[in-house]
Amino acid sequence: MNFIMQGGPIFMVPLLLLLIAIIILFVKGLKDNSEKTRKIMKELGLFAFVFGVLGFIIGMLGALEEISQSADIAPQVLAGGFKVGLLSPTFGLVIFLIGKLFSIILISKKS
Question: Which residues form the MotA/TolQ/ExbB proton channel domain (predicted)?
């Protein structure tokens, strides 16, 4: 769970809440398995991915602004910044894939 604090709580905590919502919807879908539940689960997964990418873009814009004002940036600092910046879109992508997987499971149980 250290990656949540490293990736910035402003974007990582809402992503974690979206993951929890998808898991709750999956459990609900195992009971009633409605089209609405599957659709909401898929849309929340897509939203999580796009929200993670938004976090990356905002972070990189801030970082590029600081880099442009600095005279000398070490490559290690730059690489570390990119690593931290990529945490939120990666977490969003994992949430998206979990949502898709849960949706596929619910569709296969529908028959």
Answer: 32-97
> Which segments of the chain are extended strands (E)?
none
Q: How many CA atoms lie within 13 A of 15 on its CB side?
A: 31
Q: Which residues contact 57 (CB under 8 A, 6 or more apart)?
A: none
Residue 111 has pLDDT above 70, yes or no: no
Q: pLDDT, tens digit, for every residue of 5-38?
A: 777 888 999 999 999 999 999 999 999 988 999 9
CA pseudo-torsion sign 108, 40, 24, 30:
negative
Burial class (CB in 10 A: 0-12, 13-18, 19+), 92: buried
